[in-house]
Design a protein that fits this description.
By secondary structure, the protein is of the alpha+beta class. The chain has one helix at 49-62; strands spanning 2-10, 21-29, 39-40. It has a three-stranded antiparallel β-sheet with strand order 1-2-3, with no helix packed on it.
Length: 77
């Protein structure tokens, strides 16, 4: 078991999809090798890696994804 973090770039708005831009997702890794369906990890786009780690830590500790504090990573384009 484990946790998989995904960062995807969405090209635009489609039915039920995210707005254009980066989106963070997470999925639980199963013992058999597969994963659960990816779910949103509420971290703002080009978030500071510290915020991503904090949101991930909260997720693993509580099982609930919690919105990160706003703020952009200085390395963002």
């Amino acid at each position: 078991a484990g946790l998989l973090l995904l960062w995807e770039w969405h090209p635009g708005r489609e039915d039920g999809e995210a707005d254009r831009g980066p989106v963070w997702l997470w999925a639980k890794k199963r013992r058999g090798g597969g994963t659960t369906e990816p779910a949103a990890l509420p971290v703002d786009g080009y978030a500071n890696p510290v915020q991503v780690a904090a949101s991930t830590g909260e997720l693993t500790a509580t099982g609930a994804a919690v919105k990160s504090r706003p703020g952009r990573w200085h390395g963002a384009p």
